From TrEMBL:
Entries under Pfam families matching the protein: Methyltransf_28
The protein's name in its UniProt record: Protein arginine methyltransferase NDUFAF7
UniProt entry tagged with the keyword Heme: no
The species this protein was found in: Chionoecetes opilio
Catalytic activity: L-arginyl-[protein] + 2 S-adenosyl-L-methionine = N(omega),N(omega)'-dimethyl-L-arginyl-[protein] + 2 S-adenosyl-L-homocysteine + 2 H(+)
Lineage: Eukaryota, Metazoa, Ecdysozoa, Arthropoda, Crustacea
Amino acid sequence: MLVGVWLLSEWYKLGSPKPLQLVEMGPGRGTLLHDVLKVLSRFGLSGEDISLHLVEVSEELSVKQEKKLCNGESSSQEQCQDELYYKTSTSSSGSPIFWYRHLSLVPKLFTIFLAHEFFDVLPIHKMQRTKEGWREVLIDIDEGDGPHHLRYVLSNAPTPATKIFTEDEDPRASLEVSPEAAVLCKEVAGRMEEHGGIALIIDYGHDGKDTDTFRAYKNHQQQDPLREPGTADLTADVDFDFLKEQVKEQLVTFGPVTQSSFLTNMGIETRLQNLLKDCKPEERRNLISGFRMLTEPKQMGQKFKFLAFYPGVIKDFLLKNPPEGFYRNLE
């Protein structure tokens, strides 16, 4: 809910242009966007005032998103083969929804971009420092007695990735880089520079200091990424410094700040106290438990980070009116 409040506040701050084009990259099951729409609707923003654009490559997930956003109804409309989008429907609040396979297909207008647990699942290159310089970590067939018949090996010579994405002065012994993340950030930056907008990125991540974060999960249990390839979810923590580097010539960035910091600055404690009034004991326990899960360092409070992008032309305005939820760390 507080993400919806943040989007609404920042949209108003920039003149509340209508219709509002809201884009989410990798919307999962549509839960975040559903909550955002509830907030916007409470403040009178619904129907044709908003258009929703979902960047989703999985048609299976697009069905789940549609059911979540359209009161459980699934559209009977045919696939839009002759259009840039592959499916369209209408949300429960009356707003048009479009599904795309790539951000480049979305109309270029003033846009609020959302990316929640999106960048952490993009493909990465792993690099390792050696006595001969940076080498890329590759995957090879394991002809020995290894349990997964696959193994990690180092490239014999520098690869294009090591030449482009590494620096000799980097103090780390290993690093992970996502070229696809760089391309998407530059795409967002170009759109925002030309047409205006805001971007909010919420993800697991670090400020360019962490090293080996590549891992796999299956049935909520961590396992070796080389085990049964294709059956587990692969993830790597987002290098937020790397994302900021891609847009620094065009955009102004705020963050990253921890989820605990962002939610506290957005007034989550006040909201909790209001919700606790007149609620039953079981509801009270659930609310407090949810609050702790979101904010405590040992749970999600420190693991998730928030990063915001704004057009560079409004830097002076942002110095006087910094975005809600963030420290005044304008860059």
